[in-house]
């Protein structure tokens, strides 16, 4: 018997996701490039050209000194970009020429460490396990940002990478990027900024986060989050080609000679969607989306505080509030896709699809539950 056509969820009640409804141009472009593979650029040359445009666009957003020459690629997501940043730093650490190649040097991988704030995304835990490096997580300050003193105390000459987060997953915080970069430089480590979620909002703020603000070596910035591109479209950028060269392996059966990506065959849909989204939205559309999201987050934080909840003031458009478990569950039962931080606060990510009307309906339901 023929089954009914499966339908994806609607975004109407999705308040916890860091992805959003793709821009219509991006959706159409993704569909057009569905059967292409940028992992084999000599065969799929049209999508390979598009990927160069995607990297240039992302590099412009992240204020790379020479966007047209920036190194990088469209990853499967922020996880792959972060794993690759750790891998690149590990491979480059400690060699006499600044690089010791992919297979490791005299000391074991475990002797190499990565220093990241406790707010770093769990993709760094995966990276450390996969790459067999030690992950040193350091405490946050009392506003959920990396504590620079704790980072300085944690680095040593085996530190290959220091990580700063620009738009943290749980509270939307931006770490003191310039201070962390200086600590990394002093320690002889590379510096990575994880702006997977924040990267399409931060250009419209006064925060330090980009290649222009600090000596950033690598940076994660995901079109499939605030960039309004379809999944899968993450982004890894590097200041220098050497960061990607340290990832490259030879590709004997392909016409191209080497490959720096983690996956082999990968989605041309992600690449095309990312380019189309940036063509349609950079900069004015992204500015408008960022401003609307910031207004919504401020408004929601105020409304929750007025109801007596402890609210973590939003820095980027993400609101966390201490809502009792029973109310949280009742909201989930009412169909609201909300999630909690590690400490149990309800978190609402004000993505572009989250309208003021949706937030009003959410608060109406919350008020009904409290009665
Ligand atoms: C700051 C940050 N980095 C990395 C990631 C991982 O991204 P992905 O889920 O696309 O792999 C996320 C996901 O939300 C994130 O918030």
UniProtKB/TrEMBL annotation:
Disordered as annotated region, ranges: 1-26, 88-109
PANTHER family documented for this protein: PTHR42735, SPHINGOSINE-1-PHOSPHATE LYASE 1
Chain intervals with Gly residues compositional bias: 96-105
Pathway this chain belongs to: Cofactor biosynthesis; coenzyme A biosynthesis
Sites of N6-(pyridoxal phosphate)lysine modification: 225
Keyword Calcium carried by entry: no
Biological processes per GO annotation: carboxylic acid metabolic process; coenzyme A biosynthetic process
Cofactor(s) the protein requires to work: pyridoxal 5'-phosphate
Organism: Halorubrum xinjiangense
EC number: 4.1.1.11
KW Lyase (keyword) present: yes
Catalytic activity: L-aspartate + H(+) = beta-alanine + CO2
Protein name from the UniProt record: Probable L-aspartate decarboxylase
Family named by the database record: Belongs to the group II decarboxylase family. Sphingosine-1-phosphate lyase subfamily.
Keywords associated with the record: Decarboxylase, Lyase, Pyridoxal phosphate
Task of the protein: Catalyzes the decarboxylation of L-aspartate to produce beta-alanine.
Gene Ontology MF: a single term: aspartate 1-decarboxylase activity
Gene: mfnA
């Amino acid at each position: 018997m023929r089954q009914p056509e499966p339908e994806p969820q609607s975004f109407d009640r999705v308040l916890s996701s860091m992805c959003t409804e793709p821009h219509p141009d991006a959706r159409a472009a993704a569909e057009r490039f569905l059967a292409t593979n940028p992992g084999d650029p000599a065969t799929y040359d049209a999508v390979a050209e598009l990927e160069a445009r995607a990297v240039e666009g992302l590099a412009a957003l992240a204020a790379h000194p020479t966007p047209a020459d920036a190194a990088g690629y469209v990853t499967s997501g922020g996880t792959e970009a972060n794993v690759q940043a750790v891998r690149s730093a590990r491979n480059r650490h400690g060699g006499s020429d600044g690089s010791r190649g992919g297979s490791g040097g005299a000391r074991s991988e475990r002797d190499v460490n990565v220093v990241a704030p406790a707010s770093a995304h769990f993709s760094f835990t995966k990276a450390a396990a996969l790459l067999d490096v030690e992950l040193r997580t350091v405490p946050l300050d009392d506003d959920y940002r990396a504590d620079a003193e704790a980072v300085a105390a944690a680095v040593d000459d085996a530190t290959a990478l220091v990580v700063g987060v620009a738009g943290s997953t749980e509270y939307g915080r931006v770490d003191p990027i310039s201070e962390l970069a200086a600590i990394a430089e002093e320690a002889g480590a590379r510096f990575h900024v994880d702006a997977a979620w924040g990267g399409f909002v931060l250009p419209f703020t006064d925060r330090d986060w980009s290649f222009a603000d600090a000596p950033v070596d690598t940076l994660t910035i995901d079109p499939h989050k605030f960039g309004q591109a379809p999944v899968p479209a993450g982004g890894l950028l590097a200041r220098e080609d050497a960061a990607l060269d340290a990832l490259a392996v030879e590709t004997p059966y392909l016409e191209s000679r080497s490959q720096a990506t983690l996956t082999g065959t990968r989605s041309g849909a992600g690449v095309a969607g990312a380019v189309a989204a940036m063509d349609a939205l950079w900069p004015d559309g992204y500015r408008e989306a960022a401003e609307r999201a910031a207004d919504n987050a401020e408004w929601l934080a105020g409304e929750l505080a007025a109801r007596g909840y402890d609210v973590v003031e939003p820095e980027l458009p993400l609101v966390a509030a201490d809502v009792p478990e029973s109310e949280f569950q009742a909201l989930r039962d009412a169909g609201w896709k909300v999630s909690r931080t590690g400490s149990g606060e309800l978190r609402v990510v004000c993505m572009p699809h989250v309208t003021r009307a949706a937030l009003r309906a959410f608060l109406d339901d919350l008020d009904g539950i409290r009665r």
